[in-house]
Amino acid sequence: MRHFFNLSKTEISCWLWMFSALCLCFSPLMFHLTWGNHDWLPLLVDSKLSSGLIEGRFSQYLLLNLALSGKILPIFNILFGFILYTLSLTLLCTRFFKFTPNKPLDKLFLIAIATLPYIIEILYFHFITFSLLSWSLIITLSLLSAQKAIKKRFVYNTLVSALLLFIALGGYPAASGMFATLTCLYLIKDLTPKYPLKKLIQNISPFAASFILAFLPLPFIYEWLKQHNLMIEIYNTKPETFLGLIEKVPSIICISIKSLLQPQPFFSLSFKLLSAALIFYLISTVLLRCCKQKNFITGILLTTALFIAAKFPAWLVKETEESYYASHDPAAFMVRADFYVIPCLLMFAFFFLKTNAPRWKNNLLFSLAAILLFFNINTNLDFVKTYQLGFTAENLLLERISERFQLHQDYKRNKIYHITQLGEISTRAKYHTPAQAEKYGYYTLTVPFTRYWLANEHFNFYPATPFAADQIAIDPQYITPEIINFINDKNAVWPSEKAIYIYEDLGIIALTSKGKAPFTEQFNQFSGTLK
Amino acid sequence: MKKSLADFKLIFNKTDIEALFISFALINLAFLFHSLNFMWGNHDVGFIKDELLLTSGLFEGRFTQFIPYRLLTMGQILPLLNNLIGFAFLTLALWLLAKYWRIPVSRLNYILFITFFATEPYTLSWMYFAFITISCLLWTLLAILGLYLSEYIATSACKKTLATAAILCFYITLGGYPPIINTFFVCLSGRLTIAYLFENKSLKDLWHTYKYTLLNIFIAALLFKLTLKILPPDNVYNLETTPLTSLPAKFLTTLKIAFMQFFITVPFMERGYKIILALMSFTAIIGAIIKAPTLKHRIFTFLLICGTIWLTGLTTFLVVPHTEYVSRIDFYGFAFLYAFFLALLLKYKANISHSLAILFMLILIPFNIINDYRTQKVWKQGFNAEFQILNRITERIENHPNFNPKQKYRFHPIGDISLRPNFYRNSFDVDDVFLLSLPYLAMWQGANLLEFYSPYAYINHKTPLLPSDITPEVYDFFMTQSRPWPHENSIYINKNIIIVVYNQIGLDEFRYKIRQLYPQKP
Description:
The complex is a heterodimer. By secondary structure, chain A is mainly alpha-helical. Helix content of chain A is 62%, strand content 3%. A four-stranded mixed beta sheet of chain A has the order 2-1-4-3. Chain B has 22 helices and three strands. Chain B has helices at 2-7, 14-30, 32-36, 45-49, 67-73, 81-100, 107-119, 133-153, 159-176, 181-198, 203-230, 247-260, 271-291, 295-311, 314-318, 327-332, 334-347, 351-399, 433-437, 446-452, 472-481, 504-517; strands spanning 410-414, 491-493, 497-501. In chain B, strand 2 (491-493) and strand 3 form a beta hairpin. In chain B, helix 13 (271-291) crosses helix 17 and helix 17 runs antiparallel to helix 18. The longest helix of chain B has 49 residues, at 351-399. Chain B is elongated. At the A-B interface, helix 2 and helix 19 of A face helix 18 of B.
């Protein structure tokens, strides 16, 4: 392990450049503690080691507990995360791919990579920022171990690699895309004329073994957690069947290509075209080289594998088409999954294409990197602006709702109310000028800072004495003519004065008609049954 | 390219790079609080949400104002980056000015010169409005580049290219913010004084070299005027020029104003600070008189310095609106005069002069930074206080029984609220709106402001309050019951209109307008 962290001067310089550039882009976020909709409670209560079990993420808080005792701290969470993330990029560049980034042009490449806006979604939830950023380093170490196993102490190094990958996957399974993509890129880089099959197998085996060993225990762990009621069935933990995986290959390749071109909030068409151009330039160069070296089939296989690897989480997960997340935040277009793949891919593209390239190609790559950096800085700060303005707007709204609730005629001081929040109001999109044909952007733009099922967390956050408790089911004792009127009154929605209903220890806050409608339907069915 | 840059001595050497980096870091330190706390002025509200277009400045004749924004930030006002880019331009501009004025090349000299100028509170006046920070700091770079290139025309073989580039620099800057003309002439006059005093140039030599600069500025100004004719801007306050007949009288008024600037205090530039600046200026002038070898030289040097001082009021001389003692105009003129005096102190060969320059800078740069931080504190407190009021107004509107977020209301704010002055208790001779008294909740931006943090879009931005909106009920309410904020009758909502009364002056004016419209109850 010491070997991996014995950094040379060049490596330290690269690391510092990338780290400084990232800090510069996100310093307004670092210096102003802003947080996502799951962070209200973790801000008050330290995250325990077991806090992630509910979603099956058993190692999610391991590093956060080691580094910051499970706390969300201003500056530190992001800063430490950036340190680890940029270190991982440095190690990938210098140790895994063995590029030598000692020229100013190389530094520009690395800065352009480090500041890629795929990181913005990672920064939305403060409680996982640090761990999500650190997985890239853990996976890098796993890859380096596997790489070492090719030549030395196969079993030991493969096991170390598998263990590291297992920890990373236990924290965030979608990070597996990084391991898969980088393995493909490693094999591509290593392609030589008349590449013997034996060598390919020799090279691939530690990576494959590590991958299988790391993945194998996951279903059993999930099953065990579910059996002991520690984990709930959520949208992204159902694995695809073997046949399903084979069936999905063509569609996943298409999605992989489509996602390179699909504009998303903060990823304009120009940005997408630029990065896609670089990736296709890389692929065509690889195929051309393979063709010359009579390795065309290997080349085709590896590039196909690369496209699948780039969308690895989407390939592995069984997504129900009608589910809420499938339409709002589909696995194939998750920016946080791309975060583990696209920067590595682009970094490889820059350095691979630069190697032995004529001057005009270097100039072209320099221009591409400079334009990419221009996009990155603007996009990152645009995200920061949107995030902070939306956060302020929604916190002000929260303040107004809380005040109205506490001024309600039926509100009694020192009483705790079971709050039911109907609907959500999201404001970030107000501060964003959408690019043409952009889609998705669930966490980067549209999700509100206050989720309806966590009402007690955000309503208790600012008041001097807490007044909100968990939502409860409406028992017959609560059914009065007033509640029936309130629920059936379509106009009793925020900001109307009738938007808040309080009765005994029940508090209902109707924020939107859309949020109120299903509740009204359920309530009427329920009260009808009672009648 | 490299050769051309070398010909014009524009290649960065190690000293330059070090000086630039250190100065840039110091400038950012001076304004760090502002850079990290995203604040914006009352013109910015709409632009923060949407984008700046190339045409956004046309209505007031500023046809180049948003080119830098479109090129550098894709038309967006971005936190941090706005200041960073602006400071980068300012740092480069001052480095170029140091070269133009031939300040002895040393890391210390350059750092002192750049940092002193950039940290003066005048710079803050360009940070109040976030939508022009980058452009208006870039103009200094272009203006000085124009002067720098013009100087080489006399000796260069490619006269036409240089002249075209210089004219373009002047033209773009004039198209962005015409008072930049102060910078042209103050810096040029400073250069003439330096050339006369330190380079033993005769007046004839000076004319021979610098006639091209004058000609380029003249051509650029002519082109600027022509452009305004082609793109007729709306008739706005800041384009009215002084009639020719009034110019002689205004010459003397300008002279008086130019000299009074040394002593008139404005917010965040108080008596003690101004006295130290004046002392530095006086020392530099005495030094120039001593340095001049003969009586004739002394007289001419003195006249050139007086001319430079007068030129700091050039905009005041040329335009009808009052621009004297306005920090953002002074940024382009008077601040350069202080820089000129510092340059003189740094240029004198006597050791005492350099020591004095360092001594003054040891006092003035920290003084600048302290003043900057006081300003930033007051701004932040004012910004928070005004936006808190806005939130309380939103709350009242949302709670109002007549309010329905699905409806579109015609909105009319009455008066405005400025709270920055509440957090600044020191006295000053002349107020400066940009540094202190301009409200964030400006009346004419009321509609944009009200919707800024609101989840709803309920204002009809196309139609203002109509005469037909003044119904008998509205008339009665505003004539008898209405009171300024925070009175419960400061907000009026009916099915069609929302009216917010911010202050009594605004309410009185509104009542007057209603009476003019309807002498009797409608």
